[in-house]
């Protein structure tokens, strides 16, 4: 089980508000939800909602019900409601996941705790600032790069080579993996210096390294070769355990390490010193 770690600006004041269910509600469930309002000094707190879950199948449905019927100030991101956009990623009962694909029937019988993604700056309530996460994604240059000057060249890919991207291209950049990784909590945000990129960015890095049409393997590996960007993964496996798309970032990271060791054109100390 992934341990619950509070967001960066946290010191929870547990004396939050309590919202009772409507009179007559028979099938209720208690939700304890992290609240952070940047416009008030009393932050953060945990509010309690007794939710009538008679017609609620997913945690996101319960949050929408709270917002529509009990407390319109509750803020959270969501869009597709189908596990496709990645925006409803949050920490539910101590594990990062997507609220829209987390079934109420998967939660056992106790209270349901809902927190923002761990160790990220909170903007408001369950909404975190993922700017650093997206910067790290941009760093790995997530697009096809070839060394040809001929714009008419068609880059074909065999079905076998295409199959090598399965388990990689499906990533929805929800950040569940990176924000559950202890090494990412400690090394993921250091003002650009000695920074670990985290499992999501590294899975995407491998997605392009594994693509038979991309010709920049060596340059891509150069960009990852220092003590921090790649090698701060200690194979703790939280990333793979929580990924709601059932991907395996830890394996992608070990595949990059293997490429790094086996490549003929290794980054030389001279090259490193010239950077
Ligand atoms: S690898 Fe999985 S958990 Fe990580 S960002 Fe992609 S979809 Fe989300
Ligand atoms: S396997 Fe690596 S990336 Fe995944 S949680 Fe562990 S340290 Fe983080
Ligand atoms: S709302 Fe899009 S993944 Fe949950």
TrEMBL record:
Q: Which residues form the 2Fe-2S ferredoxin-type domain?
A: 29-120
Q: Give its E.C. classification number.
A: 1.3.5.1
What is the cofactor note?
A: Binds 1 [4Fe-4S] cluster.
* A GO MF term: 3 iron, 4 sulfur cluster binding
Reactions listed under catalytic activity:
a quinone + succinate = fumarate + a quinol
- Which cofactor is essential here? [4Fe-4S] cluster; [3Fe-4S] cluster; [2Fe-2S] cluster
> Its pathway?
Carbohydrate metabolism; tricarboxylic acid cycle; fumarate from succinate (bacterial route): step 1/1
Arranged from A to Z, the UniProt key words for this protein are: 2Fe-2S, 3Fe-4S, 4Fe-4S, Electron transport, Iron, Iron-sulfur, Metal-binding, Oxidoreductase, Transport, Tricarboxylic acid cycle
Its Gene Ontology biological processes?
respiratory electron transport chain; tricarboxylic acid cycle
Q: What class of enzyme is it?
A: oxidoreductase
Q: Where is the 4Fe-4S ferredoxin-type domain?
A: 161-191
**Alphabetized InterPro entries for the sequence:** 2Fe-2S_ferredoxin-like_sf, 2Fe-2S_ferredoxin-type, 2Fe2S_fd_BS, 4Fe4S_Fe-S-bd, 4Fe4S_Fe_S_CS, Beta-grasp_dom_sf, Helical_ferredxn, SDH/FRD_Iron-Sulfur
Q: How does it assemble?
A: Part of an enzyme complex containing four subunits: a flavoprotein, an iron-sulfur, cytochrome b-556, and a hydrophobic anchor protein.
Question: Which protein family is it in?
Answer: Belongs to the succinate dehydrogenase/fumarate reductase iron-sulfur protein family.
NCBIfam families named among the record's database cross-references: dhsB, PRK05950.1
PANTHER family linked: SUCCINATE DEHYDROGENASE [UBIQUINONE] IRON-SULFUR SUBUNIT, MITOCHONDRIAL, SUCCINATE DEHYDROGENASE IRON-SULFUR PROTEIN
What is this protein called in UniProt?
Succinate dehydrogenase iron-sulfur subunit
Which species?
Hyphococcus flavus
